[in-house]
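So, can you check this one?
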Amino acid sequence: MTSLLVLIILVLLSIAIWQLTKIFDLTQIGQKSKNSQVANDNDNNVQGYLMFGFLAFIYITTIVCFVKYGNLPLIDNSASEHGPLIDNLMIISMILIFIVQTITQALLHYFAFKYRGKKNQKAFYLADNNKLEFIWSSIPAIVLAVLIFYGLYAWNDIMFVDKEQEENAIIIELYAKQFGWEARYSGKDNALGKANVRYIEGVNTVGVDLEDPNAQDDIVVNELHLPKGKRVIFKIRSQDVLHSAYMPHFRAQMNCVPGMVTNFSFTPNKTTLEMRETEAMLAKVDNINKIRQNKNKQLIAEGKTPLDPYTFDYLLLCNKICGASHYNMQMKIVVDTPQEFKAWLKDKPTLVAAVKAANAAEKDQSNPDAVKDSTTTTIDSTAVAVVVIK
């Protein structure tokens, strides 16, 4: 409601200013005016010098931004083996953009000044110049072709997985839905069971076909763990709308498309603890915690709960605006040593076991007499409570 009122006020204020301008124009009728609306040499000179002034403003702004905001957090220090290739492609693109922008802006403003309007000067009309057109068409085409081929090389190097790599890789499914993630590990057979949204029921929240032999050892979790130095092949699905699996520190992103399975693969090369100990990450965490400390003083003064200290963790994010809670769609990623990963995965129950346990619990709840015969203290007390209620 407040936004609507502000919008109405702005519209009415604009109309009022427009009407005042019209009234002012009417008051000038019949009076001599030097405003002929035709630019003279003085006007052209002023505009020419202003173009140079704006050029200086652009360069000064660029320099200030480099000095103040030049510490780009996702240009180095990647956590995957293919990360440096992506970083190099980004750095090359940024350098080329900077060079082209600097040169073209200087020429644009210089020619605007040099060929400003002058009295009794006629513009020279040039219909075309094949040589110039060939030059300024060929240079961008060659540069873009080099970038495109380099990008295709990088993409193929990242996405291509040969049979040997696939046999030694871990296969994990990332399942996206509004607004969260689940991960399904392929188990000892290293093969994911079939899945479809039609199979979603109860604790089977990712729609696995429980009759598929390959699904018998699948494990579903809400926290993604990866082993360092081991290639991981991701099979990515979406339950509802278009999402995007984005893991910035691993330089990985792939769309999650409803009705199809997309793929991405990379090899982590830094554990979570190793990344936390890097110089860049220590500086980042220290800076964030200083900001939080200052904010906590204000929160405590207002009687609110202070913020917890920040600790770095890898994250899986959604990089598509997928709905109202899109900002909150994330899952923690932990990169372990191979030994730590095996220990973590060892005790995780399979989805089939979880479904059986859930079905058994549901039967027990629907049959309180069967619960009464149980030997556990907790169930006995529940059964007694049921009898009393009856």
About this structure: The beta strands are 170-177, 180-185, 219-221, 224-227, 232-238, 243-247, 252-256, 262-266, 314-318, 330-336. The first strand starts at residue 170 and ends at 177.
